[in-house]
Specification:
By secondary structure, the chain is of the alpha+beta class. About 30% of the residues lie in helices and about 30% in strands. A hairpin with a 4-residue loop joins strand 5 and strand 6. It starts with a helix and ends with a helix. The C terminus is likely disordered.
């Protein structure tokens, strides 16, 4: 691929584009594969049908650019509401934990708490915890749900990976946490 062709890929670079060179099935071309708001868009631009490798790449790039500019990715708020398969509390981002600790006398004790997690800026998250011992089971759970709901109202924009090339995403690999003192939040 020439430098001119790389420069002509535009602001999205290689995002969503891949090359297919399969001798066994005699399939040669460029594939566009994007997920936008839960829908997968896939289209292959065959070299032969497009009258050449460069033309196929140009048509694939134009189709990809059109998709990126006209079909919105999933919003960050909507993404944060998806209930995962391993969710046990029934509320996305809210979990109950029990930690075992050793006391000074050598015996063991347990502390249970409800924890709320939410995304803040790309690659970072917020967290608040509420002790079952302090608040009781129902109130600790309710406080965690409320903390998450309040935090999500401030969530803006789209899913950050949707339009960010992989090379840029790697800069966000270090997930830092923003801690909230649950006792100070509980009174609000």
């Amino acid at each position: 691929m020439s430098q001119d062709a790389n420069a002509e890929l535009g602001k999205y670079g290689w995002y969503g584009l891949s090359r297919i060179d399969d001798q066994k099935s005699r399939c040669y071309g460029w594939r566009v594969s994007l997920r936008r708001d839960g829908t997968q868009y896939v289209k292959t631009f065959h070299d032969k049908k497009c009258e050449g490798r460069e033309t196929a790449l140009e048509l694939a790039r134009k189709w990809r650019d059109h998709l990126v500019e006209t079909v919105a990715p999933m919003s960050r708020y909507k993404l944060a509401q998806i209930v995962r398969a391993n969710n046990q509390s029934g509320i996305t981002g809210v979990c109950r934990y029990t930690k075992r600790h050793r006391r000074a006398d050598g015996s063991y004790g347990e502390n249970s708490y409800w924890e709320a997690n939410w995304p803040t800026v790309p690659g970072k998250y917020g967290r608040a915890t509420y002790s079952v011992k302090i608040y009781g089971e129902a109130k600790a759970r309710e406080l965690a749900i409320t903390a998450r709901s309040k935090a999500l109202t401030a969530l803006e924009g789209f899913y950050w990976k949707a339009d960010t090339p992989r090379s840029v995403r790697s800069n966000f690999a270090d997930d830092a946490a923003i801690e909230i003192n649950a006792d100070s939040v509980a009174g609000s």
